[in-house]
Amino acid sequence: MSNDLMIYAHRGYSGRYPENTMAAFKAAYETGAQGIELDVQLTKDGEAVIIHDEKIDRTTNGTGYVKDYTYEELSKFDAGSWFNPSFSKERIPRLQSFLKWVTEQDKEMMVNLELKTDLFDYQGIEQKVLTLIEEAGLKQRIIISSFNFDTLKRVRQLDNDIAIGVLFEGIDEEKIGQARSIHAEALHCDQSFALSKGGIEAIAQGLQLRVYTVNNHEDFGPLQTANVQIVMTDYPEKQS
Ligand code: G3P
Ligand code: MG
């Protein structure tokens, strides 16, 4: 029996708004998507900020690494014009501000925080993020994921029941055992894994499958048939 497929907006409504900005998150909320996925890194002064790349070059009018700027410095850059000049007021959001916004909305959304520790192992990012979640009172609505398994192990050591998704690319059945070893509830995988025998095995072993990044809505049906729980898409709008 197939479950109901849930839609998470990948980097917010990033197909039509500048990714990982409040404009993209607000637009995602308006679509009625059940969740938002976003990427977290740390600034030089230890502020958790929402941005995908380690460098600000692609998505702002600045250059250089996130880790080399204080939040005060980073907040000056325009994070919207690269996408469209009409978004020139957008800034790199602080995670704290985003979480506050989530608590202020009428509808309850889920949030997948992807900790971007692939290139830099931002020291203390796990505790920083867990503290912000706790302060916002949002623990029941958060899923933490990362490509870096050491990061996820640290999250689990610090918090014994927050929801964790083990994120990876391609077909790698070893992730099933890894996920179980830290009591993760899901694998965050791409379509190739979800539709492989590894996907069936993961579900048989009690893991949920959450699939990124599915931008062709025609792919939703086969994923639902494969008992995928969530698809992450840049285009979370409803299809008529
Ligand atoms: O969390 C799923 C997906 O966002 C992982 O890839 O590069 O878009 O962060 P990326
Ligand atoms: Mg991501």
Automatic annotation (TrEMBL):
- Which molecular function GO terms apply here? phosphoric diester hydrolase activity
Q: Which GO terms describe its biological process?
A: lipid metabolic process
Q: Which InterPro entries match?
A: GP_PDE_dom (IPR030395), PLC-like_Pdiesterase_TIM-brl (IPR017946)
| GP-PDE domain sequence ranges | 5-240
Q: Its domain of life?
A: Bacteria
* TM annotation in the entry: none
Q: Which Pfam families does its entry note?
A: GDPD (PF03009)
How is this protein named in the record? Glycerophosphodiester phosphodiesterase
